[in-house]
Amino acid sequence: MSMRYFLLITCAFNLFSGTGYFFFSGVTNFGDWAAVISGLHPHWLWRMLLVVGGATAYYAAVRVVGIGLVRYVGVPRDQQRRMRKLTILPYFSAIGLLSLAGLLNPLGIQLLWQSALPATAGGQSGLLWLQYYIPRGTVPNRKSENLARSYIWIVIAAILTSVYVVVLGRGITLHR
Question: How far from chain centre, in Å, is Cα 105?
């Protein structure tokens, strides 16, 4: 079960970041997609398409991840407390990790407030409310099992987190 859970959470972070970014760019007129549509006319229509398309794709991603949590990982819909535990911990861990890494950014803390924190807290917020959007008829395809704690993986994660924060948090300067 732990591999299935890991893959599902990885999928969730990728789907939520990818789909939420369209919505964010449309609403704020900031970011890569805002730059892509900057010369297109009528600009308001392109922004609206980003907002509607991003919100629709994000909602679909939330449903896919929620259904996967029930069917693929085996967490029944009626185990709300367990479902919250499996989704809230990665959400707040990601916010903490990215905030810690952002503090070391040489461009200053402003980038953390403008980009990293909103992208993580807002972009991954589907983990907080996906349990309410899982279709009622969704049932597990496998027996519900406990997720075992592995201290080996915790140590590996701590090492990788340290490397991420110390190396990538400061940024990497490329010279020509």
Answer: 21
8-state DSSP, 135: -
In a domain, 73, yes or no: yes
Q: DSSP letter for 144, please.
A: -
Q: Name, in order, each residue with C-beta under 8 angstroms of 50's C-beta and a sequence gap of 6 or more.
A: 22, 23, 25, 26, 33, 34, 37
**pTM of the prediction?**
0.87
What are the tens digits of pLDDT across the range 52-85? 999 999 999 999 999 999 999 999 999 999 999 9
- Indicate the Cα dihedral angle 69, 74, 80, 83, nearest 10°: -50
Closest CA to 4 of 55, 66, 68: 68
Q: How many domains does the chain have?
A: 1
Q: Is residue 90 part of a domain?
A: yes
CA–CA separation, 99 and 88 (whole Å): 17
Q: Is 161 exposed, middle or buried (0-12, 13-18, 19+ CB in 10 A)?
A: middle
In a domain, residue 54? The reply is yes
Decide if 174 is inside a domain. Answer: no
Its domain, for residue 95, covers 2-168
CA distance 166 to 113: 19
